[in-house]
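pinging the channel bc i need a second pair of eyes. not urgent but kinda urgent?? the chain im working w is below, pasted from the shared doc
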Amino acid sequence: MASGVKVTDEVIAVFNDMKVRKAQANEDEKRKRKKAILFCLSKDLKNIVLDDGKEILLGDLGTTVQDPYQHFVKMLPADDCRYALYDATYETKETKKEDLVFIFWAPENAPLKSKMIYASSKDAIKRKFEGIKHEWQVNGLEDLKDRHTLAEKLGGSSVVSLEGSPI
């Protein structure tokens, strides 16, 4: 069921920036790259927009953000839904990888109306996010608090570290 909710150009631009890693980017450009970002519905419930201030930049890592995964988990509201993109850095037994993960956050104690609108609008945002390999619907902090769950989504038992921390 489609909700008629539209994805703003700003959201699409952020996704495209996160998807394309510029090899020749200078240090300043790299620091401004987004590691994670949250999206929400606009107040009138007609558009998917950036959730103001809810992002982690690569330049924050090691300064204001020590553990990007835990910081990301703490950004999620306890009582409302969100969409998120998380740029996961992980290692398998063979290689080091980076993949974007699309996350649909729908906590148990979010209002029913919010859950319904976000669920019915998910396809609108996913259609705009071409090339996403990993999608994860999360319904509570217990699903997120352990890195193992994300590692499982990224590559199962072959993942040996996530964000530089062993699994």
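so The two ends are 38 Å apart (CA to CA). and The chain has a mean pLDDT of 90. — does that match what u expected or am i reading it wrong
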